[in-house]
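Quick question about two entries, pasted in order.
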Amino acid sequence: MIKQDENISGICTPAIGEAGKTGDWSDVKPAIDHSKCTPAVKGKAACFLCWLYCPEGVVHMTIPVQIDLDYCKGCGICAEECPPNAITMVRKEDMNE
């Protein structure tokens, strides 16, 4: 059985990449600063608003939080919803891959 935060109700697993991989058309991708990310800083399940609001279901509710960039569409909702501003949108060519 998966251990879940008792404060989160109605957890479901979204389907990843329903529309397929992003390919070359996405200009920006999210980058996570784990020194600001609440779950990484606290070392426990907390916040996860990025996971909750991601329309593509590519944010993994793990510690530290991971984003599947192969399927991320670069919409920026995760960055917009992140309370500690741990997620920023960066141009793909500026990412350290």
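Here is the second entry:
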Amino acid sequence: MRFLPVLATVLSLGLGATAQAQTCGGNFSSFVSGLRAEALQRGFDPALTDTFLRNVRQEQSVINADRRQGIFQRPFLDFSRALISQNRMNAGRANYDRFRSVFDRAQRDYGVQPGILLAFWAFETDFGAVQGDFNTVSALVTLAHDCRRPELFRPQVFAALEMYRRGMLDPAQTRGAWAGEIGMVQKLPSDIINYAVDGDGDGRIDLQRSAPDALLSAASMLRAKGWRANEPWLHEVAIPQGLDLSRTGLRTELTVSQWAQMGVRPTHGSLPSGNLRASIILPQGHRGPAFMIFHNFRTLFEWNQSFTYVTTAAYFATRLMGAPVYQAGNPQQGLDQNQMRQLQTALAQRGFDVGGIDGILGANTRAAVQDVQGQLGLPADGWPTPDLLRRL
């Protein structure tokens, strides 16, 4: 098993490169020329850089894909039911049997349980079947040029250039997701450089065609991001009537024993060690499912920053490990995208940090909702409803 070392020249920026990394937009050809100049400043060979950038194109389809991430606006129950089908359950179990030795190595060497790797493998590419058909270099340069998230994507251009230097990427042929991720578990170039593993021992790393490479690289990354060996990540619970809902959410951590003393109970099996610190999340408020989440759950935001996506993947992982279907409850009606934007605007006007007016119920908006619910004497569960919007 071979690790790829951290590349200092990719991750470190000099003063001049730092200034360039703050730029975006403008004429696309001029922007690409700026990337070339920065690449040379970083020490890349001019001929290599020219070949890497020779056929790069601004792809409107990439921008369109970035703007229409509507699935992340769906509430947890709808989102999880859409992503967790019986076919995916069956395929997950079949792939676990097929690659059992790989999953055993992932747990032995990195402490990452099979369910987590299977869940992300399923959601990212349907176990490798759908890896994307966007030219990786053009996608990354397009998103670096776009001014929505240049601080994320500009460094990835140089990480991809380093992959090309190492023979791990073909700028003309390598294709993947619209956001520049590559392979069965959809990793950005910097993560591939830093954490990728030769899992099948063939002397090369191929995250597109080798399941052992992809799975062990994912486990390697999770451990590097803080995953704690063989600890839990999520367990469904039932909360008692009268629980102080303002203590739910990602901002409050208590020990498992403390939650138990407050009346929180598992819906199946038993909770882990009473000394572990945990939070209670209510993805659709106090009338919907409730989960106790642990440190390892939080590391999953390094994979994807969507609260709903991470919660769904973490829950699916427990299902693949034998947990029953959640108790859906009867949640109150939520908000559509336009209503969510109105709510975020109203909250921002009251001084709350909602993390942007994007119509998505992210962690910042949930926290702001919970605070304003408390101010208005409503159940402070972080779930926005039409009634809350009317009151604001």
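Reply: Residues 134 and 175 are 5 Å apart (CA to CA). The beta strands are 134-135, 175-176, 234-238, 254-255, 265-266, 277-281, 290-293. Hope that helps.
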